[in-house]
Amino acid sequence: MLHIRSLHVRGVRVPMPHPHRTASGAVDESPLALVDILASDGTPGHAIVFAYTAAALEPTATFIQNLAPLIEGKPLAPAAIADQLAGRFRLLGTQGLVSMALAGIDMALWDALARARDQPLLSVLGGIAQPVPAYGAIGYDGELDSAKAAEDWARRGFTGIKAKIGYPTAAEDLAVIRAIRAAAGPQVAIMVDYNQSLTPTDAILRLRQLEEEGLTWIEEPTLAHDYQGHAAIACEIRTPIQCGENWWGVRDMQHAIEAAASDYMMPDVMRIGGVTGWMRAVALAEVHGIRLSNHLWPELSAQLLSVTPTRHWLEYADWWNPIIKNPLRIENGMTALDTAPGSGIEWNEDAVHRYAE
To answer: Are residues 132 and 275 in the same domain?
Structure first.
């Protein structure tokens, strides 16, 4: 059986093609910890950890690197390693930076295991490639710029668009939604994301004014971990409520399900616990009949959605394309997976060196 020979982490800061604005501020770069593991036969495994802010990049990368002694020399068995590391950090807690670090290791281990078997990850997980509809994202860009972005996504063949809203008034939210609809056409699915900017009471009042807009979902109208607040909103609003990108681990997802906090769910593969956590989330979703989409990590998420029976939409983002040798292809609005071994992550080393922290 293969063993884990080494773990190495590098930090990069990748500029955004265009600043991505939200109701709480703009994102103009991606601070990423690049995780590389090496198996005993020389097989590599790669993963990306998104630190969100430059201030968190160095501590995140350092913490992941500090975990090397806990995994080096152990069998290349990702789920077993995930359980061992979770047990090791039970007293500290497996959320926040700890969760990010453990997920980064998990994703890299699964990549190495798939490469060692000369198969794409989805095959190792027992699936076959499934095309998934992809949507493009629009920031908190106002009526005119949101319409221009929507027109561009539609011209590129995308059949779904998600826009950041949460403007000072409901009238402004409606104006942006209608401008996007006019630009993209009636056949394009439109989702909106409030980025947790409303109280439950305000959300109910505001979202009632969006009910006739034909939205595919309304995302995180209130605080991500206010399960009861989201449940109250979901009970009052006909348009499906979407949550999940900010949940830490499968137990957060379980709490949300128990509270009936949202109609749809969209785990973030890093926050949910890596590939191991995603597969456990898939089991929960299937049992409860909940449709799953992803948050970021398009290359890896496209493979994971292929083995998700309740798969829904893929969130496409090109933020990290510069450092990836073969970014995910979208053809006719659907994911197009190749058969290369691994999870889909291969470094463009020239770009990695260019953006090195």
So the answer is: yes
